[in-house]
Every structure is written in structure tokens, then in C-alpha cells.
Amino acid sequence: MVKGVVDWLDERLDLSDLKHFIAEKGVPIHTQEVWYYLGGMTMFLFGVQVFTGILLLLYYRPSSAEAYESVQFIVTQVKFGWLIRNVHSWSANLLIALAFAHFFSVFFLKSYRKPRELTWLTGILLLFLMLGFGFSGYLLPWNELSFFATKVGTGSAGAVPVVGHFMLRLLRSGDDVTGATLSRFYGLHVAILPAITTALVAGHLLLVQRQGMSVPPGIERAQKAGKLGPLAQMKFFPNYILRDVLAWYVVLAIVAALAAFYPWELGTKADPFAVVPPGIRPEWYFLAVFYTLKLIPSHIMGFEGEQLGVVAFGIVAIVLVLVPFLDRRASRGERSPVFTVLAALGLVYLVVFTIIGHYAK
Amino acid sequence: MSQIARRCLPLIAAMALFAPSQATAQPAQAANTCLTCHSTLADTRLATPAKLFSGTDIHRERGFACADCHGGDPAAAEKARAHDAAKGYKGAPRGQAQITACARCHSDADLMRRYAPKQRVDQATEYATSVHGKQLAAGHTNVATCASCHGPHGIRLVSDAKSPVFPTNVAATCAACHADPRHMAEYKLADGTPLPTTQFADYKKSVHYAALTKGNDLSAPTCNDCHGNHGATPPGVGAVSNVCGTCHAVFATKFQSSVHAQIFDKGCVECHSNHAVLKPSDAMLGSTGHAVCATCHSGADDKGAVAADTMHGQFEQLEAGIRRSGALIGRVKNAGIEVSDQELALREASTKLTLARTEMHGFVPASVTPIIADGAKIVESVDAAGEKGAAELRFRRRGLAISLGAILLLVVALGLKVRQIDRRSHS
Amino acid sequence: MNEDPIPTRAAAAFDRRRFLDALLAVGFVSTAVAIAYPVSQFLIPPASGEPATASASAGKAAALKPNSAHIFKFGSRPGIVVRTTDGDVRAFSAVCTHLDCTVQYKPDTTQLWCACHNGTYDLGGNVVSGPPPRALETFVVNLRGEPGDEEIVVSRA
Q1: Chain C residues with CB inside 8 Å of A80's CB?
Q2: Which of A119, A134, C114, C154: CA 20 to 30 A from A36?
């Protein structure tokens, strides 16, 4: 049946180029090929988010008077609303976890080196966008935790020197976190960020398809030195695709398990005049940064501690974006231990500080 | 008065020397040299009334002047003529003279109708029946008269929040004398013991005071609501539950039909105190420990003790049930089950508990039991619904677990297929 | 028996492949159904319409006779809708402002009354007598639907 549809389209659109491309496309087989699947899994979860997000859109109301009640309505009144909501909440967390895993695997395997600098660029921006999705979406249920976490998070934005206050007002749509903030975050979450993400994902995918999969630098060097022959290739279609789909179903199973055994709570409705609950923290993917900022002493050599911290993280972000251009050795195909070490340090820092941030008082 | 004259004379002379124009600078409207002279006096006792009267004063605003109460000649520039007894000058009226001075207008219905038709005109008559009035008639001048509470000058309407007799200020006004042991030292109770001075301190601990000052409920009782305004007297034996019953009608009715009505002289006050009326709790009910009933009742063969313990147990049980039910549906609601019907029902159960606590004032467990039983039935139904909700949650979990199984099966099948395709590619 | 082992093996492999393909098809279809079913159910609008934050239904107008009232649910708190002797429909929060008992309507006095401690309110929600410290919250009443079959819709002022 599928063949019938393809033939019908072929008669009208001449799919010969596409067919040739798919038939010829191969994926190199080697010891590190398992990392290839992470990108697709991330994309799959993004698709799940868009799908469940659109479903939630049909019932959610982005006003401070109704947001909490509408989520309650979805979870209690709408058939399988609890399922859609739980899937959306859990796969959000999984999406960010996978995005980080994909990022680190690319970082360690130096896939960013020439000629894939643009892929890295679009990728790192996508990572920031995913964090933006997480931050904006977290406020939408308008419960106590999300309200105060947003307050703390946007407050940190105010620590940026010079433009901090302006940024804070821009984010919060005012000086405080109010219904106006909710509307703005909603617009960000369902329109602005998805639009940018779609463009970047399309670009990212196009680049990957055009350039094929990157091979680990060690293997490339061995091949150049003559110690290794040309790599065996598996066919993209159907061998690789089937494995990809397998991975996606595994991810789906994990999401279903989490939704079944750890359902997401409603919490209590946000009260802007309530006291900040003790031990308020952002979600895990911001914990390392949050805890680091908390640890910084309030004044260092005449500068405000938080300001320095925010600026430092800003610099780190810029450096990350520029990694392919900074790592000359990798671009030349040589060993680049400095960046490997940096990647390892980054990973260790994130893991350790996330754990500490979770257990700290 | 001669003292005042002696003090005033040099000043008047000075004024006559230095400000002869005073006499010519009469205001175009009704002359009131009383104010012009008294407001400049150095003696605050004489100057303050003039200052107060010139400020916010209801009498002045209605067109009355000093002479209308004190007599004398308001047009006269020098003291002797101003203070002329022939012109009706009576100085500062004190004691019974003060009552008469105020009552001259305030007991005149025709006059009062021209200014405040709804205002009562029997204050003086009522006052005569009060403890203050009776003590005054017996010659004790140290008691409150009109000016003691309303102020003699700068008198504000009772509805003016700054008036000393505005509801939130009444207790402090009464306490000015009644909380002062030196002032009250000469007064004794019928049995010779000195009058207590702790009423204000006690009242400040009460729920009534809290309702009045923090709850903004001006209908909450203060001193005059139970003791009377002008006829201020503590309510007598047998009258207490009537007095409390003016607001707490249901309790009073139940109490009056109960066994305690005949026994308790002090009615409601026996258990709830008169001034330090605290928030009641179920702990007051029982025959052991700090329970109020334990003051008289104890032991298994005391019907009262048994009744108290029974009712206490019933209240505790229902309250615990409501709390437990509330926690259950709270948990279930947080996990995503619709429970607004149950929340409504729990409200009804709380209402039943409140009704039971009211019914308790008849001190008959048999009349309390059916109300508690109703409440318990509601709690039971809420519990059942809560359990259903929890069961629904478990059902959802199981459903998801099954789909999880299906997905895993598919994953295994996919794995096998991948292996198969790989083998085919290789061969 | 040794004549043609390869065709038998190939035939067996083909059968296995057919079986696996069938299994996969069943798997894909069942997971697709496991996704499509909840999603399609999700799209069906639920009976209760919309979240009862700002408004709630208080029953049919025709069922409310003059000089009578009935309790309805507003979110998780009770409300009371009254039809006065003149035919006017009014709605209030049924939560007594004294100690949160549920008030009721007394047709003989045309007042709202709380059985717990004898609090009384008039048909404007104002306290007439008894312990309640504040008036009852008044709601806005609208009629919605076909004439003759209107529904009373109560919303917050």
C-alpha cells in the first residue's frame, strides 16, 4: 500500500532524486555509533511535546484567574486529560535530559569540527531554546512552586549588568511576576519559541542529511594512518531508520512508565502575596546554575557577586557557541585534549552541582 | 472660683493695658468673649476647654456656645461681667449639677427633635438607675458623669471614630477609672471585697475584643453592650444568659431549657467567663484534666461526667473524621481526580459539627447524637468517594502499565526485525 | 532429505519473516490505537463545559418557583439561588460569614438564615441580625438558553 502511494506521488512529483538519496544514504558502523540515535530521540520527544502541547492548548487558559483551574479541569474533567498532561510534563524533562546527552556526545566526539560548524551552531541554539521552553512552560500551571521558581529565575536575569533591569522587565512583562508574565510566557511557549525552533530544527536536519553522520576523530585518524580500512555502512533505509524507531519506542516506554508511576501533581494555586516557600528551587535542569549563583558571595572585589556569576555564565554560553571556531586542532583533525578535558569538567560540574543543589537546604 | 479670679485678674489687667482693642474687635457673628479670653490663658486647665471647643465639637457645630451650658455673658469683655451670676453663670458644673446641665437639653424631647429626632431623651433617667447614678445620689462624687465618658468640650458624635464612646474606644474609656486600683479603692462589692480592676486586661484577651478591633466587626460587644450605656450596671443573677443571648440566641435558648440554668447563678459566665471570653474548644468539654465540666463533675457514676465525656468523644471523632477525609480527598485532588462534590459535602459535615456544638448547650447527649450521626454519614460517603478516587488512580496506573507492556513488546519485535534485516543485508 | 536443504531453510526463514512482519504490524497498530484512542477521547468536550472559576450553572429557571431557593455548586463552595416573591432571581454565596455553615432560605420571613447560630441576612445579602460580621457575597445572575427553557448562570461580580 505504501508503495502504491509512493508511486502515485512519483508520477506527479518525480521523486527519483529523493529515492536515489534514500537508497544510497548510508550510516557508518563503528564502536561509537550508539550516540547517533540521541539526536533523533530528542527530535521525537520534541514532536511528542508539540503534539501533546497542541492538545493541551485546546483547554488551557493563560490568565492568572483561570490557568490553575483550567489545568485542574484538564486533569480531572477531560477524558485522558491526566494522561496528556503527564506525558507533556514528563517528556519535557526527558527532552531536556536527552538534549544535554546529545550535546555532550557531540562535544566529546568533536562532531562540531569542520565541516559541521553550522550544525553545532544550530544545535547549541536549539539547546538554549529547549531550556527556554522548559522555563516558560513551567510557569503555565500557575501553582505555588512554578510561581516562585519563576520569580527567582527572572530575578536572576535582573543581575545582568547594564541591561539586567530591562531584561527583567521584558521577561516579567512588568516589575513583578503577574498575570502579565503568564501571558507573555504563554506567547513565548506556544508561538515564538516553536517558530524559531521549527526553523532551526529544519536547518539542523537538512545539514545532517546533507553532510551525513560525523565519524569519531580517532577513527578518522586511524583511517588516514592506514591502520583502518573504509568503514562498513548500514543502509539508512530501512536498517538505520528501524533502529531509530526502536529507540523512539524505548523513549515512549520510559515516558509512559514515568507518567504511570509518578503522576505530576497539581500543587496549590499561586498566591502572589504568600510567603516564599522555604527551599524553593527551579527544575533540575537549572539547579546547577541556580546553586552556583547562590554560593557566590554577595560581593567580590567591589562587584556584586550575582552580577559576576551571571556574566560568567553568559561568557560560558558565548564560548560554547564558538567552540568549533576555537578548537582549531580538532578542525585540522588533530587530537584536542584541552576541549575533551573542558567537556569532562563541564559534565562533572553540571552533575555534581545538580546533585548538591537538590539536596542543599 | 475666687482662686481663678485671683489668677485671672492680673492677666485681664495686662490685656486691658496691652490690648485695649480686644474690646472693640468683636466678631461680627454671635459674640463669644469666653473663647477669646480663655484660649489665651496660661493655665492649661482653663485654656484647654476653649481649644477643644474651638476644634471638632458637635455642640459648637450646631450653633451652641459656652454660655449655653455655663451661663454668663458671652458679650462681656471683662471677667467680672462675663462671669456674672446674675447672667446665669454657674462655672464648671460637677456631679449632679453636671447631669442637670446636660439633661436640660438632652432630656427635652421637643428640643432634641429639632436637632436629632431619633436620639433618645431618657439618658438622665437611665443614669439614675445605674451604679454610677446611685453612688452619685448617695454622695460619692468620684463616679462617672456625662463628661467623664463623652468629654466636656470637643464632644464628638458617637459615630465619630475618635469619640471616646465609639465602639472601639469604649473599653479604654471605662478602663480609665475601672482599671485604676487607686481610683476604685474606695468602692467595695456587696460582701466587702474590693472591686476588681482586671476587667479591661481580661477583655483584651477575649474574642469579642479581637472581633471589634481586628475583625472590624462593630457589632461585637464592648462594655456598654452587656452593662448598658447610661444605666450601666452589671447584669444580675438570672440575667446573664439573657444578656449573652441578645446575640447568642440559640445557645441561650438551649441553655435556659437545660439543667444548668437553675443551678448556675452566673449562667454563661460559669463556663465562658465574663470579660476574658476566649475561643471555646472541645477541650473544655469532659470530666478530666483541664475540662471546665471537671470543676463539678467527675467519676463514672456522675451522670454529668458521663454526658460530658460522651459528647466530647463524639465531637473528637467527627472532627478527626472530617480531617482525615479532607486529607484523603486533598491527596486525590492533587493527583487529578475531580472532588468538588466531596469538598462541598465535607463543608456540610463541618456544619453538622458546629450545630452539634451548639446543641451541646442543652447538656443532653441524646439530642447531640443524631446530629453527629448525620455528620458521620456524610464523612463516610466522602471517604467512599475518596477511596473510589484512589482506586481510579490505581486503575489509571494499571492501564498505563499495560500500554507500557505493549510498547515493550513492540520494542522487542523491532529489535528482532532489525537483526533480521541486518542479516539479510549481509547475505 | 539432503536433496534440497536450502529451499527448506529459505522457506522457514520466509515464514519467520512473515511471522515477524505480522507481529510488527500488530504491534504498530496496537500502539497506534493506544495513542489514538485517548487522543480522540481527549478532543470530545467534557460534560461540565468549562472550569467553574468565574461562573457556574444553577439549574433551570423554570424549576425555581417564586419564594423558593436552592443550593448549587460554585467551584468547591456552595451557592444559593433565590427567586423572590416578585419573581426576581438572585444568587449569593451560601457560606455564612460567621463560621462557614451553609445558609438556607426561609420562605415565611423571606430571609436567608443560618441554622448554626441564628444569623439572618436579607435578600440583598446584608446581615439583619445575629453573629455574622459581613454580608454574603453577591453573584451576578444571567439566564441563558431558549425562552421557556432557560438555564440560570451565576458568575462572580
Answers
A1: 38-39, 41-42
A2: A134
Residue A219 lies in a domain: no
Of A260, A263, A267, the CB nearest to B404: A260
Cβ-based contacts of C102 with chain B (< 8 Å): 347-348, 351
For residues A84 and A52, the answer to whether their CB atoms sit within 8 Å is yes
pTM exceeds cut of 0.80? no
Q: How far apart are CA B153 and CA B60, in angstroms?
A: 9
A204: CB partners within 8 A, 6+ apart = A119, A122, A123, A126
pLDDT tens digits along B367-391: 999 999 999 999 999 999 999 989 9
Contact A84 C38 (CB under 8 A): yes
* A182 in Cβ contact with A140 (< 8 Å): yes
Chain C environment of A58 (Cβ under 8 Å): 43
Strand order in the sheet with C77-83: C55-60, C151-156, C138-144, C89-93, C77-83, C68-74
Q: Do A55 and C52 touch (CB under 8 A)?
A: no
The residue whose grid cell reads 460569614 is C97
Distance from C-alpha of B227 to C-alpha of B243, rounded to nearest angstrom: 9
- Secondary element (H or E) of residue C81: strand C77-83
What is the CATH topology of the domain spanning C55-156?
Rieske Iron-sulfur Protein (2.102.10)
Query: Which long-range contacts link B393-397 to residues 24+ away (Cβ below 8 Å)?
Result: B393/A263, B393/B332, B393/B335, B393/B336, B393/B337, B396/A82, B396/A83, B396/A260, B396/A263, B397/A260, B397/A261, B397/A263
Q: Is A117 domain-assigned?
A: yes
CA distance readout (Å), A55 to A50, A132, C38:
9, 20, 11
First to last CA, chain A: 60
Q: State the DSSP H helix or E strand holding residue B347, giving kind and residue range, or none if neither.
A: helix B340-359
Cis peptide before B221 (omega within 30 of 0): no
Q: Name chain C contacts of A78, Cβ cutoff 8 Å.
A: 42, 46
Q: Is the pLDDT of residue A330 over 50?
A: yes
Q: A120 in a domain, yes or no? A: yes
CA proximity to B255, closest of B362, B355, B365, B360: B362
Neighbours of B306 (CB within 10 A): 15
**Which grid coordinates are listed for B268?**
454563661
The reply to whether residue B420 touches residue C16, judged by beta carbons under 8 angstroms, is: yes
Domain boundaries, chain B: 303-392
Q: What is the overall mean pLDDT for chain C?
A: 86
Calculate Rg over the CA atoms of chain C: 32
Of B215, B343, B354, the CB nearest to C116: B354
SS3 C66: coil
Going by pLDDT thresholds of 50, 70 and 90, the confidence category of residue B12 is low
CB contact under 8 A, A78 and C42: yes
Q: Does C30 touch chain A (CB under 8 A)?
A: no
Q: Is C115 at the interface with chain B, CB within 8 A?
A: yes
Q: Does C157 touch chain A (CB under 8 A)?
A: no
Grid coordinates given for B92: 464648671
Domains: count for chain A = 1
**What residues of chain A lie within 8 A of the CB of C41, using their CB?**
79-80
Which amino acid is residue B115, in one-letter code? Y
**What domain range includes position A78?**
26-213+235-266+274-281
Nearest Cα of chain C lies from the Cα of B312 at a distance, in angstroms, of 19
Q: Which three cell numbers stand for residue B365?
A: 447527649
Domain CATH code at residue A160: 1.20.810.10
Average pLDDT of the segment spanning C127-137: 89
Q: How far is CA B405 from the centre of its chain?
A: 67
Cβ under 8 Å to C: A residues 200-259: 249, 252
CB distance B355 to C116 below 8 Å: yes
